[in-house]
Amino acid sequence: MLTSGTTSVSRRLLGRLRDVMAGAGTAQERLDKVVTLIAADMVAEVCSCYVMRAGEVLELFSTEGLKSESVHQTRLRVAEGLVGDIAAHARPLALADAQAHPRFAYRPETGEEIFHSLMGVPIIRGSRVLGVLVVQNRTMRHYTEEEVETLETVAMVLAELVASGDLVNRSELVPVDGNAVLPLRLEGVRLNAGVGLGVAVLHRPRITVRRLVAEDPDIEIDRLNRALAAIKTELEELFSRPEMRDGEHRDVLETYRMFTEDKGWLNRISEAVRTGLTAEAAVQKVHDDTRARMALITDNYLRERLHDFEDLANRLLQHLSGDDEDGPRGELPEVAILVARNIGPMELFDYDPKRLRGLVLEEGSTTSHVAIVARALDIPVVGRVKDVLDMIEPLDPVICDGDNGQVFIRPPEDIRETFIEAMSERQQRRAIYAKLRDLPAETRDGISIGILMNAGLLLDLQHLHESGADGIGLYRTELPFMARSALPNVDAQTMLYRKILDQAEGKPVVFRTLDVGGDKVLPYWNPSDEDNPALGWRSIRITLDRPAVMRQQLRALLRAAAGRELSVMFPMIAEVAELVHAREILDIEIAREKQLGGVPPTRIRVGTMLEVPALAFQLDALLPLVDFVSIGSNDLTQFLFAVDRGNPRIAERYDPLSPSMICFMRHVADKCREYGVHLSVCGEMAGRPLDAMTLIAIGIRSLSVAAPAIGPVKTMVRSLDVGVLVPYLHSLLDARDHSLRPKLRSFAIDHGVRL
Ligand code: PEP
Ligand code: MG
Questions:
Q1: How close is the Cα of 612 to the center of ligand 2, in Å?
Q2: What is the spatial distance between Cα 562 and Cα 550, in angstroms, rounded to a whole number?
Q3: I need a labelling partner for 533 at 20 to 30 A (CA). Which of 11, 41, 256, 720 fits?
């Protein structure tokens, strides 16, 4: 529950600002009055307002205290000087001795050399910095945190004046190529393949907070409490829906509910109300602070958490401004492309998947939940499309080209037609894949290939039977853990794993034990502060160090598989000793369950992922201990080439179809054959037909791929003559090429292999 406190000094200032802003005069005149007012109220000799102009230049627009001839003359680039630094990092600065700061840039025309202290805050609206507001004093004044807060609140009010388009032309407030009427092609990253055409629906359209200054904080606190209560009721209503009875979406919702109770966050909002803001302005302020902080945070765990608060702030704003009809639950157009900065997997379920033709995100990564859920729903996704929300208007026509990681906004007719043709071809291909469902995955020269599916959500199970996959070659058990607000207990896990096995209807399922850390974050575990999380405390390293978690998971798996076969796979094993240790834990659990009189699985198969190159040099010691090995090509590529898989600048720099990677995997395949150990590949590479063709040529006979890749991979398999490819591939392995992809593609084309 929020409570209102005492009246603060800034309320008086805000009240005056409101009168000036609503009063007579041009925007410039009003701004001049505003800076005078702030200087007086904050007992500063200088108050200046810099406004961002086209080309990322900050222009001095108004000042009280600096030389008047510098107005509209003094300009600083973003990141230049202290003002530029505030804009670049979207964060406040308060310096008693500003001139001693290494970033201080002296501008003689301003006459500012006599002012020693400086406090500045960014003027932010949405996620964009529109300018900088600065106060300066002659003495070495130590500005307090409260004074910084006050200036931030004032900057927020000023943001409305800057964004109004009366000070600078509104066209300068959007990026240079963001002209709303021109067609645009924007580059992003493929998060899910496929192409969709539709009209833009902006996820949580930006709500413009119109009423900023409040009369009575008690009324505002009351409004906030009512909005919070409404969200909680909404959550209860969602919980009661039949489709929410179980599954990962329920877990996500539980986590969400936890955030509505977060005291720190609620306190920050009520503090902001106490400074004189309306409830919505207070939420907006905390929300803007969060966003500005998010831009600076590289820690995945913190980013995820801040993102959840951001979602909540948006819902609150919708309630407070009374236009929740435009919100997530609003009616979608017939064909919609959803555009968002980021979106949680739960929120995606707010939209009718039948009408959703694509998803475009400013953020996101292939392993983010939403990408995984979108994959399960077969919705094309393009992520990391910079500033797309600033360049698009609701109902703009959009093409979401997940295949090539690009987005067309307001595309010209010829581009639209090309895509429509490509889509109809894709439809035809799908119909062909559907016919393939019950045909064997056998090459032209009679080699049988196992094609299995990767899964991580109960939702994925429906594709198992539709696609004709032979089973689930990789079940990523971490997703249900990531969706919850607390570690699921043994019973909850048992129920989930039992459901998965039930729904698999006897097809094999390989359960991979918890593989968190790196880019997969559990909301309830404190992150470790690591410089290289991908090389850090993650996956099996965590579960071996926290054996209780591993034991509980194994116990749940044993119970769920009572009377049927169980396959358990350990991730990120780097040395045989780790596998031995993990097996010991499993053996203890098997013995314990036996003692308790539980029905054991009919058979237990134990396997390891091969993702860390070191393990490949211990295969003689490893292979006698396991029933199967699965190569995780995503992490293997990352570790073999020392290339961060999550960094778009270099993620694609090395090709898995390089001589080194192929030779490496061939060595593993040869050894597994020698020891009679089943080998599969379950990374993304296995789902790309050309890559899969190469894997088959080095002796791999089992591939586990995302559901939409099953048809294309099977088509390739059925058109391939392995006997012809093998000698050709061998002839290439000593090549000096960066990638063998072009040559292998030519081979496929020449030999009628269907890619
Ligand atoms: C891999 O690394 O290839 C893999 C399948 O595991 P994940 O993508 O879940 O890390
Ligand atoms: Mg991996």
A1: 9
A2: 18
A3: 256
Task: Report pLDDT digits (tens) over 681-738.
Answer: 999 999 999 999 999 999 999 999 988 899 999 999 999 999 999 999 999 999 999 9
Query: What residue spans of 182-323 are helical by DSSP H?
Result: 217-240, 248-259, 263-274, 279-296, 300-320
**Cα distances (Å, whole numbers) of residue 213 to 41, 43, 273:** 17, 22, 9
Contact criterion met (CB below 8 Å) for 376 and 369: no
Which of 476, 481, 516, 644 gets mutated to test ligand 1 (max ligand atoms within 8 A of its CB)?
476
Domains, the chain? 4-172 (3.30.450.40), 186-203+333-414 (3.50.30.10), 217-321 (1.10.274.10), 437-750 (3.20.20.60)
Which residues line ligand 1 at a C-beta cut-off of 6 Å? 474, 476, 515, 611, 632-635, 682-683
pLDDT at 218 over 60: yes
In this prediction, residue 50 carries a pLDDT of 96
The atom number, within ligand 1, closest to the CA of 682 reads 5
**Residue whose CA is at the smallest distance from ligand 1 atom 9:** 476
pTM: 0.65
Closest by CA position to 379, among listed 406, 407, 404, 360: 360
**Best of 609, 629, 645, 704 for a ligand 1 pocket test (most atoms within 8 Å of beta carbon):** 609
Ligand that lies nearest to the alpha carbon of residue 474, given by its number in the listed order: 1
Over 80: is that where the pLDDT of 170 sits?
no
Q: E strand or H helix at 356, and its extent?
A: strand 356-361
Q: How far is the CA of 735 from the centre of ligand 2 (A)?
A: 28
> Which tens digits make up the pLDDT trace of 624-665?
999 999 999 999 999 999 988 767 677 778 999 999 999 999
408, 384 Cβ separation under 8 angstroms: no
Closest Cα to atom 4 of ligand 1: 632
The rounded distance, in Å, linking the Cα atoms of 451 and 473 is 8
